[in-house]
Design goal:
about 210 residues; mainly alpha; single chain; two-stranded antiparallel sheet; 8 helices
Length: about 210
């Protein structure tokens, strides 16, 4: 269903009135509308963009299970790294920090992120978003309901994927750099931040 802010331009594009759009039929000019009919149309316009909470709850439960699964796989991978002595004590905390960030982002994107922005984001160019302690600002991106869901999906996919991917990348980097902690730390951080923000910026611009 379209956002309520799109009703007027959609009706204009289809050369119908908003009432005809909501009623899904042509309304003759000679046909009067009672107060009850007007009230029903207004109620329909206000509620048409609202989503049934049940499917949203089911999606969050599914995302929560995926997060737990990825966390379990990540724990197994870290255990393998420890078993084969590919984790130095100095670098272990850096790997855990990256995994902790993935858990935090995963919790937000999977369970707490809003799936729809207020209408004023569609009416204005707003480059920042805040919801409680969560803040987001992507360079050159204006948030709206066209690009918000793709941005959230990109963030969720990376949060889940990085839980599984980063221990593997870490082990590869340790072998590549012969256990030298500094290049491993720098490359690991660049891969993590790039994997998080580049897809979000890409889809944000694509659907803006």
């Amino acid at each position: 269903m379209p956002d309520i802010t799109l009703l007027v331009p959609l009706a204009q594009a289809l050369d119908v009135s908003v009432a005809e759009l909501l009623e899904c039929r042509r309304i003759p000019q000679s046909e009067p509308m009672s107060a009850n009919q007007v009230d029903k149309l207004v109620t329909k316009a206000i509620t048409m963009g609202e989503e049934d909470p049940q499917p949203r709850k089911q999606r969050r439960q599914k995302n929560g299970l995926l997060l737990l699964l990825c966390l379990a796989v990540s724990a197994g991978e870290i255990g393998m790294l420890l078993h084969f002595h590919l984790v130095s004590s100095r670098m272990f905390n850096d790997l855990l920090l990256v995994e902790l960030l993935s858990v935090i982002f995963g919790l937000y994107f999977c369970l707490f992120a809003r799936e729809k922005l207020p209408a004023y984001y569609d009416e204005n160019k707003i480059s920042s978003y805040s919801n409680g302690v969560f803040r987001m600002n992507l360079v050159g991106i204006y948030f709206n309901n066209r690009n918000w869901l793709p941005i959230m999906n990109a963030g969720r996919n990376w949060a889940l994927g990085s839980l599984v991917l980063m221990p593997v990348v870490y082990g590869f980097l340790m072998l590549l750099f012969n256990g030298d902690p500094w290049p491993v730390k720098i490359v690991l951080l660049l891969i993590y931040l790039g994997g998080l923000f580049i897809p979000m910026i890409y889809v944000g611009r694509k659907y803006e």
